[in-house]
Specification:
By secondary structure, this protein is mostly helical. The protein has a domain of 190 residues. Helices cover 57% and strands 6% of the residues. It contains nine helices and eight strands. It has a two-stranded antiparallel ribbon with strand order 1-2. Strand 5 and strand 6 form a beta hairpin. It is elongated and about 65 Å long. It starts with a helix and ends in a 13-residue tail after the last helix. The relative contact order is 0.12.
Length: 315
């Protein structure tokens, strides 16, 4: 369980670093917003003259309005440019980890069909970034000799890799597709973006226990709570090590107790819920971080080094 504990510590550290960045972003947005009371040249043209910007306004605004309408229609349909499942996203946490079930503008999104639920879960579960992630988890598990019934060596590493992949796949499908389809619950996380840091954190944590139904109501999150317990039970009692004897340099017949116990299953269940809780809290603030980083990169790319003024020419 030290791997899960380390993952929680890393996630909590990331979340703790979010708040200063959000505060700086809000101050920057407030300071950079234009004063609506300041008149522009187009609003107060001189008598008998027409502002050049006002002459070009209809054509420019027409193109902008068309683009805005197209984006709004895409949001209402919930589709993306790559034709992925309607009502999902192409977002990635920290530009790497799949975050396809986190969405904004929840009022404009239709419910997911059963086919779409399975499709988006499969897309995230078998994303290319998952394979090196499973390899890393397996290496850590091998290094600390967790589940010693697997032993050591490349064969043992292969068993740990398949176990990590199977654990993640089973948990993702049960909590994100199987139970949400049977219980008509929505597996997506709808970001709030309302209130301060404490209010939004409380909202995100509460989504572990409360979820949205396909009809738009609120319901106890059976898909997460019960689904995580089912996933832990299925994986733990199916392919995790049984009790066995291993030959070690100090003990040629060392007895290794079975990992298929109720206590171990409950431990895995609790650890999974804790990790999911921290992950959801990070998902709540990721759009703000993303916009902040994107705005900073845009400002940096548009920054022009100051030039010296033209010298005064002598008559």
């Amino acid at each position: 369980m030290s791997i899960q504990f380390a993952a929680r510590v890393v996630a909590c550290s990331v979340l703790a670093s979010v708040f200063p960045l959000l505060s700086a972003g809000q101050q920057t947005a407030q300071s950079s917003s234009p004063d609506p009371s300041t008149p522009t040249q187009a609003q107060n043209p001189a008598k008998g003259q027409v502002s050049p910007s006002a002459q070009q306004a209809p054509a420019n605004h027409t193109g902008a309005n068309q683009e805005a309408n197209q984006e709004a229609n895409q949001d209402k349909k919930g589709s993306d440019t790559k034709g992925n499942a309607s009502g999902t996203s192409n977002d990635r946490l920290f530009y790497t980890l799949p975050n396809f079930l986190s969405v904004e503008n929840s009022a404009q999104l239709p419910p997911l069909t059963t086919k779409q639920k399975y499709a988006v879960v499969a897309r995230g579960t078998f994303d290319p970034v998952q394979y090196p992630w499973w390899a890393l988890l397996s290496a850590l598990s091998q290094a600390e000799d967790s589940e010693p019934g697997f032993g050591q060596g490349w064969e043992a590493y292969g068993k740990r890799y398949l176990t990590a992949a199977a654990d993640g796949t089973i948990e993702n499908f049960i909590t994100g597709a199987v139970l949400p389809s049977l219980l008509h619950q929505d597996p997506r996380f709808f970001q709030s973006s309302k209130g301060g840091f404490t209010q939004r954190t409380f909202y995100a944590v509460s989504r572990i226990f409360v979820t949205r139904t396909d009809s738009g109501g609120s319901q106890f999150n059976y898909s997460e709570i019960v689904g995580a317990a089912l996933a832990a039970s299925i994986s733990n009692y199916s392919y995790h090590p049984r009790s066995t004897y291993l030959s070690t340099p100090t003990n040629p017949h060392k007895f290794i107790p079975s990992d298929r116990t109720l206590l171990n299953t409950a431990d895995v269940w609790g650890s999974q819920l804790a990790i999911d809780t921290v992950t959801i809290a990070v998902k709540e603030f990721w759009p703000d971080i993303h916009r902040k980083l994107s705005h900073k990169n845009k400002v940096d790319s548009n920054t022009v080094s100051p030039k010296t003024s033209n010298p005064i020419q002598k008559p």
